[in-house]
Specification:
Pfam families: Methyltransf_22. This protein is of the alpha/beta class and 327 residues long. Helices cover 39% and strands 18% of the residues. The strands form three sheets. It has a seven-stranded mixed beta sheet, sandwiched between helices. A two-stranded antiparallel sheet has the order 1-2. Helix 9 links the parallel strand 8 and strand 9.
């Protein structure tokens, strides 16, 4: 006896469900496309949840920072950045890289001074139009070269008035050199490029506008304590809007006797970066400098920041084009 004759209601239900499934399959275009959409949704939710959790942990660190200030201050103006009277802290203990990058973290470039920690290179590598800016070359370009080799669609814009070209890692590689653009300019808080200005200086926003860029995937800054004013002006120019870069690799310089050794001033600058959406996910003290200049305190630290604001590859699975910078 047939299934329909023995169980007519069950057989009808099976036929109805089969028909509905076929309709859904046809309307969706393909079963694989529907599955990919579902996966993208869950991946996006997972990425969002990860960033949200990390932000919660970062806020906890901010409370701990305030507690440390109260312990050794008790106000910021009473905190000594590098104490010498038996206190068990330094400036850098107030600014820990407490935000975990939600992607793979790699140290890119030479294993020594010149290499940097980068977040999510695997998400940047497939981009057809990747942009990297590097301020401070000093004859060593292993970091930039490794990023460009991993991301064949990446163009490099380098700036350094103290040298005449990139390092040999790029200059001796025809493919990388073709995608690299060098300029003997300084990064600063204002534009100064008239006759007699030596070196010529530009703000980061001006350089992006000149190059026709609305977004920088990787921004490296190593400009010997000139990073403070340059970044401050750049951040202020966006008036609270998301900054147009995905991550920042920067060497922070606090030389003995400089104005940035004053804790309240440094704290205010750092909090400006945090308010703009920058979260440090890695730090590495420059021990080469300490070793070469014996007897100095560790005033140079490499920091890597992720920009948690905006809509780019590191914080979204479906990034949209950034808004165009006004000229």
């Amino acid at each position: 006896m047939s299934l329909f004759a023995r169980h007519p209601r069950f057989a009808i239900a099976v036929l109805v469900l089969t028909f509905i499934s076929l309709l859904l399959f046809v309307n969706s275009g393909s079963g694989h496309d529907s599955l990919r959409s579902s996966m993208a949704f869950h991946q996006s939710s997972a990425l969002y949840d990860s960033l949200r959790v990390e932000e919660t942990h970062y806020k906890k660190m901010l409370r701990q920072r305030q507690e440390l200030i109260e312990k050794w201050g008790p106000t910021p103006d009473k905190v000594i950045s590098f104490p010498s009277n038996g206190e068990f802290y330094t400036l850098w203990d107030f600014f820990l890289p407490s935000f975990r990058c939600p992607h793979r973290i790699d140290r890119v470039g030479i294993m020594g001074d010149g290499g940097k920690w980068i977040c999510g290179l695997e998400r940047i590598a497939p981009k057809k139009n990747c942009v990297m800016y590097s301020f401070g070359i000093n004859g060593e370009s292993s970091f930039e070269a490794d990023v460009m080799q991993a991301a064949p669609g990446c163009e490099l814009y380098g700036y350094d008035f103290s040298v005449k070209s990139f390092g040999p890692e790029i200059e001796q590689n025809p493919d990388l050199k073709r995608r690299a653009h060098f300029f003997p300019f300084a990064l600063g808080p204002k534009d100064a490029y008239n006759l007699g200005d030596n070196p010529k200086m530009y703000t980061l926003r001006t350089l992006m506008e000149q190059n026709g860029h609305d977004f920088i995937d990787v921004l490296k800054v190593d400009i010997e304590a000139n990073e403070y004013d340059a970044l401050e002006v750049f951040i202020d120019s966006f008036h609270g809007q998301p900054l147009p870069f995905g991550q920042l690799q920067i060497e922070v310089h606090v030389y003995g006797g400089s104005e940035w050794e004053y804790f309240p001033k440094f704290l205010k600058w750092w909090e400006k970066l945090e308010a703009a959406g920058l979260r440090p996910f890695f730090s590495e003290p420059n021990l080469v400098y300490v070793n070469l200049v014996r007897g100095v305190y560790p005033g140079l630290v490499e920091y890597s920041f992720i920009n948690v604001r905006g809509n780019h590859e590191l914080v979204s699975n479906r990034p949209s084009p950034p808004p165009r910078l006004s000229h």
